[in-house]
């Protein structure tokens, strides 16, 4: 409060001056409080209509890859189980051969890594579809948040990571979800040929730009050496 900051005598002086001033209208416009809301975009995304529909469709569209990966995973597990059992048995023996144990462990790890790489390759189209749908949803986040904030008369929207406490009334998740479902009812499931996730596209663009700059930088040097 102003009186708590000003010295008593000065506060009285200001009060008297206000009483003695001419009767002029001095309307003070109170500054409206800033309205803040919180939204969890990750939760909104995975609960969106586009995401859940794509999850269901993907099981059918990529059924061959999913079944192939499941079969191969079972084969790998059947191959690894006796090796792991033999390793555990040998390790529990008195005076176990440590060199032999290290060889067994290395063999198991190699099979596991090769198997995981093989599964990733089989499921690559499925992962690419997931990334394609995710990117379509993310591209609508800004508009969905802006529309929801405008409708709720909110000035600032924060993510839960930067908020220590917030009343549930400040939660904008449902409003943003409704906006997102309106903006993107369904997403395209299968990416077009040659499509790459944004991160890989940006890496390619950076590499292309760097490669384009190198000849331009080398040209003046070549001209100097040619003299």
Identify the notable features of this structure and list them briefly:
disordered N terminus, two-stranded parallel sheet, 227 residues, mainly alpha, 2 strands, 3% strand, 69% helix
Largest sheet: 2 strands, parallel
Order of strands across the main sheet? 1-2
- In terms of per-residue confidence, which ranges show pLDDT below 50 for 5 or more consecutive residues? 1-30
Helix content: 55-70%
What is the structural class? mainly alpha
Strand content: under 5%
In N-to-C order, the SSE pattern is HHEHHHHHHEHH
Round the mean pLDDT to the nearest integer and report it. 85
Structural description of this entry:
The protein is mainly α and 227 residues long. It has a domain at 36-193. The chain contains 10 helices and 2 strands. The chain has helices at 2-5, 8-20, 41-46, 49-61, 63-91, 98-122, 124-138, 141-151, 173-183, 198-226; strands spanning 36-38, 156-158. Strands 1-2 form a two-stranded parallel ribbon. The longest helix is centred in the middle third of the chain and has 29 residues, at 63-91. The chain is elongated, with a radius of gyration of 32 Å.
